[in-house]
Amino acid sequence: MRIAIGSDERTHLTDLLIAELRARPRGGSSWPAGGRRPGGDWPLVSAKEGESVAEGAVDEGIICCWTGTGAALAANKVPAVRAALCHDAETSRGARV
Fold first, then answer.
1. What is the largest CA-CA distance in the chain?
2. For residue 14, what is the domain's CATH number?
3. Which of 69, 70, 86, 97 would be a feasible disulfide site paired with 91, CB 3.0-4.6 Å?
4. One-character DSSP codes across 1-68
5. Which whole-number Å values give the CA distances from 25 to 15, 28, 33, 64, 80, in the listed order?
């Protein structure tokens, strides 16, 4: 599975997330990291993340943002994208199609 990572800033959390995804085995239900490094203008990062998913360049995207609200709004402006604010794994599972 190809996952793009985007963030409004590079933090210890984003570095840990990328390291965790890269450490997972490839194939099956694995999640190797792909896409962008954290940093940049959050509306642009979120929109580019959504475009990557909509165009099929990646299977899923994870956007890290201070509140998450603005990032989800920006990503949801991309046609065919459904972004959700998730604080835990159960919410994330429920937000998927």
1. 33
2. 3.40.1400.10
3. 86
4. --EEEEESS--HHHHHHHHHHHHSPSSTT---EESPPS-S-HHHHHHHHHHHHHTTSSSEEEEE-SSS
5. 18, 9, 11, 23, 29
Predicted confidence at residue 58, as pLDDT, reads 86
With cut-offs at 50, 70 and 90, classify the pLDDT of residue 96: confident
The two structure tokens encoding residue 34: 């792909």
SS3 80: coil
The per-residue pLDDT for range 28-87, each reduced to its tens digit, is: 444 555 555 566 677 888 888 889 889 998 888 888 888 888 889 999 999 999 899 998
Domain limits for position 49? 3-95
Q: Which carries the bigger pLDDT value, residue 30 or residue 23? A: 23
